[in-house]
Amino acid sequence: MRVDYRMEYVFYGILLLAAVAFPFFATNEYQVYVMALAFIWAISAMGLNLIAGYTGQLNLAHAGFMAIGAYTVGLLTVDYGVPFWLAFLLAGPIAAVVGFFAGILSLRLKTHFFSIFTLCVGYIIYLLIEKGDSFTHGPVGVIGIPAPSIGPLVFDTTTSVYFLVLAFLVLTIWVMRRLVRSIVGRSFVAIRNSDDLAEALGINLMRTKVLAFTLSTFIAGLSGGLFAGFVRFLGPDLAREYHTFDLIAFVLVGGIGTLMGPVLGAVALTWVTQSLQFLENYRMIVFGPMLILLVMFFPHGIIGTFGIWMARRRANAGKRSNTQAVLPSRSGEEARANA
Amino acid sequence: MPEIILETKALTKRFGGLAAVKDVDAKVEKGRITAIIGPNGAGKTTFFNLISGTFPSTSGELWLEGQRVERKRPDQMAQLGIARTFQTTSLFDGATVMDNLIVGHRLRTSSGLMDAIFQTSRLKADERSCRAKAEEALDFVGLTHVANRLAADVTQEERKRIAFALALATDPKILLLDEPAGGVNPEETVGLADLIRKISATGLTVCLIEHKMDMVMGLADHIIVLDHGEKIADGTPAEIRANPLVIEAYLGAGHDAAA
Amino acid sequence: MNIFFQQVLNGLTLGSVYSLVALGLTLVYGILHIPNFAHGAFFMVGAYISFYVAGDLGANFWVAMIVSAAAVAVMAMISERLIFHPLRNSPALHDMIAAIGLLLFLEAVVQAIWGADFHRLPAPYTTILRFADLTAPAQRVLIIGAAIVLMIGLQIFLRRTTTGSTIVATAQNREGAALVGISPLKVSLLTFAISGALAAVAATLFAPINLIYPAMGHLVILKAFVIIILGGMGSIPGAIVGGMVIGFAESFGAFYISNNYKDIIAFVLLVFILSLRPQGLFPSEVR
Predict the structure, then answer these.
(1) Could you say which of B107, B126, B166 has the minimum Cβ distance to residue A203?
(2) CATH match of B4-258 with 3.40.30.10
């Protein structure tokens, strides 16, 4: 298994190199723009994956929390003259505070009830933004958000913001990787698997689910803050449920409950959508049936299917070497060495 | 006089107007195997759910080691040392057996979110102990060889053993087994009975619900019989076998005792 | 007095439409235990088909309603067969996502055919009815009357006919129903057909006093979900009572509180009630 870890690092290394090199090989600035936007959605999708994929609670208000983060940056910078970075630092925490209270209310409900309830929460967020003219600019939206800057360093070109977004994407992946492989992440997965069993194993359901939910809304807020700094224009539609549906598609295509699935899904689908642009608003004619076919025939997504295949191969290899009378506790020792 | 680890006094659970468990007084002796039997619908699983905290009781008392616990949640009961298995074992099929087991010892660790993000020494120690516990439990149930297999790819009998291992990994004082031999063949049933004996030999208290009478009679030190939610008898297997009330309950309820 | 009466009439109108939509949703939930997020799309498609049959083909309003109900019923049955039936043993998450996929697809198809613009279905009856000093537009009275007739009809069908009682039996006890020879496949197809037809009828009735556009189902379906959570998922009386409660809350809320925020009332009510009673107002008998 040590070999697998090495392979994994090589895999991450190649991905990172490709991402860093991308702007230099892109034939025009628009491609860099699209990729940076895909990364922002990827961060948001990782947040959704944490609660829906790892913890098994399909939160349909995720785009609403992204909008809260985005509007935190938009309103603070435009209306109150707060420097971008200060506003940006608040994007995640403010979304997480709202998420914490929404979580306490909604996570008492299970499965469908939770999803429907959060769908309503998302709609409330949207309606509050859309109707709250005096505070949120209502349907007009927030215009003229300043470019991200740290002191003299201003990220005002597409390529510079691309690298900023990439840095946050790498950070999110890194934190998420540590989290989901830890016993904390394992208790999330135990709840997804069966909440009765998890509870019988001594896991406090409410506390654990609220933690996962709050963290996922924090990530949603963070991605929303990046969105505000990158697109520099906000409308209430960002909170709409169809953005959550897009995020679900990203997570599913890449592999729900896998670390890199949402990233792969967001990047792949963004480019597929780009190539379907001639369809304009009708892309959902392709997209909708694709979602259905995915859950029917390919529910584990790209990374999930690959992971299961790898695990089977590894188990079979283990069986073979066991019959060749290698040390019986081989797997255990190896596992320890990797821990 | 053996020590009583768990005791119920007039424990009652009503759903609507219906009493699923009614005024049950029961004692579980430390370190021994207690079986709960009864015809279908006798309230056995409800009784289990009451002592594991899944349902709050309607009335009555539940004592664990001299402490009243009838208002505790399942996770609190697990912390106090009550581990249980379910009739159907829901493992995460997309992960390996070992990955499924590691979380079993989570309740004895204290690492939080920040420990995970900053990979503190506490987290590393906790992960080591969780993994070691999982390996120990898997070894105990005799399944070290399937550690790296996907949970989807193990047999029904192995699944039962994994469920035992998961419960053992919580470091329990009492192990509640809900139909431990449900859905496995006669040979495997013998193997599982041996495993239950082996668990009991370590000093752990075992409580089980089972329909397979020959297994119960050969295994249990003490048997509690429920019928229509009420305790109608308790005693040694020999006493139970000779008890006319028990025979009537089983014959009257259709012949599922034979199953 | 007249103003108050107008609010009552409004509440009844909205409540009737919501109840009809919620009834279809709750029936499907009772049988298959899936929240059909695509139900709002059935509602929307129903409105467009009526618009097409009554507008472009120039048919009578009632003919349009029947054609639309039949068409949406068939569409609902096809989606049961092709999507929900194959997914019946999958995790709940998959059903929900597939329903979302269907919703996105239907909206896109409608938009491709009729565009994103607003359309209006002409009202079949434009007279204003008068009783003493009270006035009531005929269309609203029609909605309320038709909804009541449909609900009574549905109730008779479910309680008094053999076919209807198979639905009730399956909702109460799936295994038991299968044991006495009720085919779960037929029951789910039938339930989907009824649910689709109810959505189409509700949309056709509502269309003349509202606009027709691709996203018209969004708010209605969300409110229908609020209704069936409050009324108990799977409960038929719960859907009717819940629909009326939300209809009245909106009509009076719009008038006495704020017209701007009237759409939020249902959701705030849900959040408020579920915070106090997580099991809903009327916990359903069906698990």
Answers:
(1) B107
(2) no
